[in-house]
Design a protein that fits this description.
The structure holds 2 protein chains of 2 kinds. The radius of gyration of chain A is 18 Å and the shape is globular. By secondary structure, chain A is α/β, with parallel strands linked by helices. In chain A, α6 links the parallel β2 and β3. Helix content of chain A is 39%, strand content 11%. Chain A has a single domain, classed as Thiamin diphosphate (ThDP)-binding fold, Pyr/PP domains (Rossmann fold, 3-Layer(aba) Sandwich), CATH 3.40.50. The longest helix of chain A is centred in the first third of the chain and has 25 residues. In chain A, the strands form 2 sheets. Chain A has a 5-stranded parallel sheet, with helices on both faces. Chain A has a two-stranded antiparallel sheet with strand order 4-5. By secondary structure, chain B is α/β, with parallel strands linked by helices. Chain B has 2 domains: 157 residues, 3-Layer(aba) Sandwich (Rossmann fold), CATH 3.40.50.920; 166 residues, Thiamin diphosphate (ThDP)-binding fold, Pyr/PP domains (Rossmann fold). Chain B contains 11 helices and 14 strands. In chain B, β4, α4 and β5 form a beta-alpha-beta unit. Classes of the chains: A alpha/beta, B alpha/beta. Chains A and B meet through α5 and α6 of A and α3 and α4 of B.
């Protein structure tokens, strides 16, 4: 039982996360390309951010006192776009423009194109350093808001990320919380085969971070970890969120092949049915 | 200004110098100072004027002349360690938040090593980070080829949104630093290590994007940036005695290039020599050639590194060995004039 969130609120978020998955499948199918597995895997966490954790104002994305959520692994921007649309940054209809010419929803997010995405990202290993810059600057100005940086596990192959991790530890950036989508896949296969990351906890601890590990699909656990991070005074915190790539669609879960592709229309039909019926457990009005 | 004639000054030797540029009275006796020193001074003033100015440095605080700022504003100085990728990233985050970060290192490392971080997170992101590339050019000298940045102008000028400024002396570097602090744009400021002739004065005009015609002449236009501009002026003085009159243009801003001044100069003189302490591929000379090919095709000779790396030696030795000295500039002028027909 969480001290931070009620049962009913958790249920509400879980329903929203399922809605987000449906919108994701629809938008990625319409786009014809994009990153499905990581986006699905982070649906619970992004739903928790946009509908519970972040102090933000969708009608005023540049509100100076907002919490900042940096998405370092920009390729999973579809889930961010979905969460933004659902929370009122722009109409849901616009999700259909993903990756299309003239769209604000670029294949990788751009600050100049879409207010609210905070920064341009895609090339890996670059979000944490920017989050460090924001956290450092906010602390200089005694601003109370928090900086969050969502990262992939695969991008920990990048040396630049460790430069940033060292900087955050040195400067005790306790207003910074990193979130690692520990889904164990990257483009060339499983992370531990491509370039082993373990012991990831020990690595961060050695860089003077406070480390928490959660089930990234357990919204209650995740929110508790976010709250614990706020209480850590001398260190930045990283939450290693163990997630299932493709979560919600058992036939693609854990399959690295789904890292960088989108569903075909016939697959989408099947996937949407699965999501709408909770894997056949309930009858859906959509059937 | 470029089409005006500056005749009428009493001093015979300097008869063609543009009086509006307010250069030092005797060009043959300049004081010596490094552009990095001018930057250090400018940084102090910028920091006093605006408390959003912050300085980040990658373990080179003294040699990039950020030391005084660090002493005066310790809370606004951020030591990054030897981590140039993170230097660009943290600076980007701070600028995105609302600070005006000067991110300093040696040019070989920044914008050399961290080029992609600058591209995505500063240029494409369009946040006003000031990238300070010190120890640029062959004049770094004894450190050798590894530390002589000769491609940084090229790296920076191909990035949309990025402003590229190469001051010609310490006084201009101070002005450039102050101008960069208020231009609200991603900006690359290229600095040299070696002391060089200080031939401009506080009264010399400076505006980012506005080239300065230092000297008028009808036979050829020498367009330069950085400390080698002094060599260009000296070459023009010597050539004048041989009856060749050179216009000399200080193109301190490589991007945005002052197209009007350069096209008019090419129209008037019909020949151009570009002078820079950089590879001839991709630098100021290339920028000029691209402009003139489209608007005013003009014979051009390129003074710079001819697709080669440097080596250890004194600045003076290397400038001569790499063909950047007064004699080589004079030779290039004669060669390009011969091509005019």
């Amino acid at each position: 039982m969480s001290n931070y969130i009620s049962e009913s609120k958790i249920q509400e978020l879980e329903i929203k996360a399922n809605e987000a998955r449906e919108l994701l499948i629809e938008m990625l199918t319409e786009a014809g390309s994009g990153h499905t597995a990581g986006s699905l895997g982070m649906a619970d966490i992004f739903t928790a951010f946009y509908f519970h954790i972040l102090n933000h104002n969708p009608k005023n994305p540049d509100w100076a006192e907002r919490d900042r959520l940096i998405l370092s692994n920009g390729h999973i921007c579809p889930i961010r776009y979905v969460a933004m649309a659902m929370s009122g940054y722009f109409p849901l209809e616009e999700l259909k423009t993903l990756r299309k010419f003239g769209s604000r929803l670029q294949g990788h997010p751009e600050r100049e194109k879409l207010p609210g995405v905070e920064t341009t990202s895609g090339p890996l290993g670059s979000g944490l350093g920017q989050a460090c810059g924001m956290a450092y600057a906010a602390r200089m100005d005694k601003k109370p808001f928090r900086i969050y940086c969502a990262m992939s596990d695969g991008e920990h192959d990048e040396g630049s990320l460790w430069e940033s991790a060292m900087f955050a530890g040195k400067n005790k950036l306790s207003n910074l919380t990193g979130i690692i989508d520990r889904n164990n896949i990257q483009i060339d296969g499983f992370t531990e085969n491509v370039m082993p990351l373990e012991n990831l906890r020990a690595k961060y601890e050695a860089f003077n971070w406070h480390v928490l590990e959660v089930d990234g699909h357990n919204i209650e656990q995740f929110i508790d970890a976010i709250e614990e991070a706020k209480a850590i005074f001398e260190k930045p915190t990283v939450i290693i969120a163990h997630t299932i790539p493709g979560k919600g669609l058992p036939e693609i879960e854990f399959d690295p092949a789904w890292h960088g592709k989108s569903p075909k229309p016939e697959e989408a039909k099947k996937f949407l049915n699965e999501l709408r019926t909770l894997g056949g457990k309930i009858k859906s009005e959509h059937q | 200004m470029s089409s005006a004639s500056f005749k009428g000054r009493k001093d015979k030797q300097l008869i063609m110098l543009n009086p509006e540029t307010k250069l030092i009275p005797d060009l043959s006796k300049p004081a010596m100072a490094a552009t990095r020193d001018g930057y250090g001074k400018g940084l102090m003033t910028a920091g006093e004027k605006d408390d959003r100015v912050v300085v980040l440095c990658a373990d080179l605080t003294e040699s990039t002349r950020c030391e005084e700022f660090k002493k005066k504003f310790p809370e606004r100085f951020i030591e990054m360690g030897v981590a140039e990728q993170n230097l660009a990233l943290v600076a980007s985050g701070m600028a995105n938040y609302g600070k005006i970060p000067f991110a300093a290192s040696y040019a070989v490392f920044s914008p050399g090593r961290n080029n992609e971080q600058i591209r995505t997170n500063i240029s494409l992101n369009n946040v006003p980070v000031k990238i300070v590339g010190a120890h640029a050019g062959i004049s770094v000298g004894p450190d050798g080829a590894t530390h002589q940045a000769l491609e940084d102008i090229a790296l920076m000028r191909v990035q949309p949104n990025m402003v590229v400024v190469v001051p010609c002396d310490a006084v201009e570097a101070e002005k450039a630093t102050l101008a960069a602090a208020v231009n609200d744009k991603p900006t690359y400021l290229r600095l040299g290590r070696e002391k060089s002739a200080v031939f401009t004065t506080p009264a010399t005009p400076f505006e980012i994007g506005k080239a300065i015609t230092l000297r008028d002449g009808a036979d050829v236009t020498i367009i330069g940036c950085g400390m080698l501009l002094y060599n260009a002026l000296m070459a023009a003085e010597e050539l004048s005695k041989e009856g060749i009159e050179c216009m000399v243009v200080n193109s301190h801003t490589i991007k945005p290039l002052d197209e009007k001044t350069i096209i008019e100069a090419a129209q008037k003189t019909g020949a151009v020599v570009s002078v820079e302490e950089h590879q001839v591929n991709g630098g100021l000379g290339s920028a000029i050639a691209e402009l003139l090919a489209k608007n005013q095709p003009t014979p051009q000779e390129f003074i710079g590194l001819q697709d080669r790396f440097g080596e250890s030696g004194t600045a003076e030795e290397l400038i001569e060995a790499c063909g950047l000295d007064i004699a080589h500039i004079k030779e290039a002028v004669k060669k390009v004039i011969a091509r005019k027909k």
